[in-house]
Amino acid sequence: MAKKKGKQGEQITELEKEILVLIALGLENKQIAEKMYFSLATVSTHIHNIKAKTSIKSRTLLAFYALDKGYMSETRIKSAIARQQWMAKLAAEQQSSNEGIVEAAAKQREATAEHSPQSKL
């Protein structure tokens, strides 16, 4: 039996509301699938149905839709934004730290090579 496809004007299900909240929090389909223990295909189907029911094609506008409908609070969105910014800052610091380690290792190799017996040949 084929699954029923969402049609414009149909009510959003509770499961679809949960997915809308996760979209509004900035999660990608793969992250939503992992969080909800669904396959990626299942999440994609639900999002397709949500877009059909709402006539909204943009993930950004779906996030605004979730906020407008009261599926989530503005405070929760602000918290998610702050968390994303914090994670980006940590990633940048980690990248910078890794670059420093690589640079220090290269300098160490150069210093070791200068003092090795082979370098004097």
Overview of this protein structure:
- This protein has two domains: about 1-70, Orthogonal Bundle (Arc Repressor Mutant, subunit A); about 75-115.
- The chain is about 70% helix and about 0% strand.
- The chain is built from five helices and no strands.
- Helix 1 packs across helix 4 (about 60-70) and helix 2 packs across helix 3.
- The longest helix has about 40 residues, at about 75-115.
- The N and C termini lie far apart (about 80 Å).
CATH homologous superfamily label of the largest domain:
Winged helix-like DNA-binding domain superfamily/Winged helix DNA-binding domain
Supply the CATH class of the largest domain.
Mainly Alpha
Mean pLDDT: 85
Secondary-structure arrangement, i.e. CATH architecture of the largest domain: Orthogonal Bundle
Shape: elongated
Question: Can you write the helix and strand succession as a string?
Answer: HHHHH
Structural class label: mainly alpha
Which fold does the CATH topology of the largest domain refer to? Arc Repressor Mutant, subunit A
Q: Helical proportion?
A: over 70%
Distance between the termini: 79 Å
Q: What is the number of strand segments?
A: 0
Largest sheet: none
Helix tally equals 5
Beta-strand share of residues: under 5%
Q: Please give the domain count.
A: 2
Poorly predicted runs of 5 or more residues = none
Radius of gyration: 24 Å
